[in-house]
Amino acid sequence: MSRPLYSRRPDVLWRSTNDRVLLRPVGRGGLITITGSGTFLWELLATPTSLPDLVARMATRYQVEPDVVEEPVTTALADLENAGVVEKRHGDGRSTNHASVPNGRSNVAAMPRQRPAAEGSR
Amino acid sequence: MMTVPRTPPVPASLVAAIAAHGLLGSAHDVPTEPLPDSEFDSLLAECVAQRLTGALANSIARNRLPATEAQAERASEAHFVALCHCLELELLLLQTVDVLDAAGIDHRVLKGSAAAHLDYADPSQRTFVDVDVLVRSDDFDRATKALMASGNTRPVAEIRPGFDRRFGKGCTLMSPSGYEIDLHRTFVTGPFGLMVRLPDLWDDAAQWALGGKTGLKALDREQRLLHACYHAALGDREPRIVPQRDIAGLVLDDRLDEVRVRELAYAWRAEYVVASAISMAWETLALADETALTAWAKRYQPDTRSEHAFAAYRAEHANYAARSWASLRALPDLRTRGAFLYSLAFPQGGVIGGHHVPLLRRLIRAGQGLRP
Questions:
Q1: Which ipTM score applies to this complex?
Q2: CA distances (Å), B160 to each of B24, B234, B346, in order?
């Protein structure tokens, strides 16, 4: 059985600054802010990607072992899924999404802040 | 008497240098050391007012503009606030488009979100403060009604029934969340707005997706440039920098069909508007790179008729009455001119030129337009 793939939901308005990503799901909830390494996770979610691949790419970017980031990535994905901005698609195309967001600004994806790898080392 | 400390003025060249961030070849210099806090705060206030927080925050983040950590944080926070508004405005745009779609009214999104997504590599760099949508003149009344039926209000009533659809630029509606929706049928009030060959605007469209909705429609690239030129040259007494930045980005885009731009400008009798806006943008942003269009803009010499029309917007005496008088020349026949003057002299509602004025004063003002 193929692994589920995570990606951004299309019905989300968003903008990025140098250190944050702002998200506004259409038709539900309020503004959501992603900070720190969560912004890189959001970047990766532009393309449907499996959890192991996300973990591997986050580990490479932050120069740590995959098992260090596995739990924070899993938690962040669950938060983003619950906030209705990320969807998980199974191999058969089925989507699971919880999307229950209270009104107001939320902060999700609180990944451990670590130094990103220098551009040249990737 | 208490004196309020005055903030130091910001050099216009520094604001322009910030605006030119991301464009190649600007000759403006930026300081090599962080500005004193009072000067930085003035710069930040000006960037907020000119909607340049993205360029400021990015200039600092990319070490183009030296800043202290606290200054960088203030710039980042100001940009964050501007972007929060942009997202709410895009939500309002989607609702507006849904209302027009449901009513079967074709439309084009103008400026703001369309410019951000179609003309900037990073949409976060182009912030905006309202929603602008264009509809056909024949659909204007229906579009206004549909948008009001969905909860938006119109703070200023129409001068006379049918005036907006025949002679106006459009109207402003207020959303329940307090944001403005500018519903347009043309680009500006006055003669240049009346001379736009409106059917051209519906020949083609650029499309993009937003928040899961595909097929949002904007003007095509050449028409977006012309609209930015109207906005820059005729929109405000003190020309804003953002439309000039839009112009520079579009003119330097290899995909722009410069010949078509000139053909449209000629057909809409807007060559003076386009030439002066492009020249102004190049001068303001101190851009070195020339294109065929910028060379043409520099060489362009307006005729007397264009100069008179332009003066109604930019000259010392320019006001709504002067623009109204200049509009007469752009109207096709005596009957239409009569209807236009009658509406201005005997309005049933609304305001003229932003102020309530008595009938006699209105006529005097209209007469003042006779003297250039």
A1: 0.82
A2: 49, 25, 8
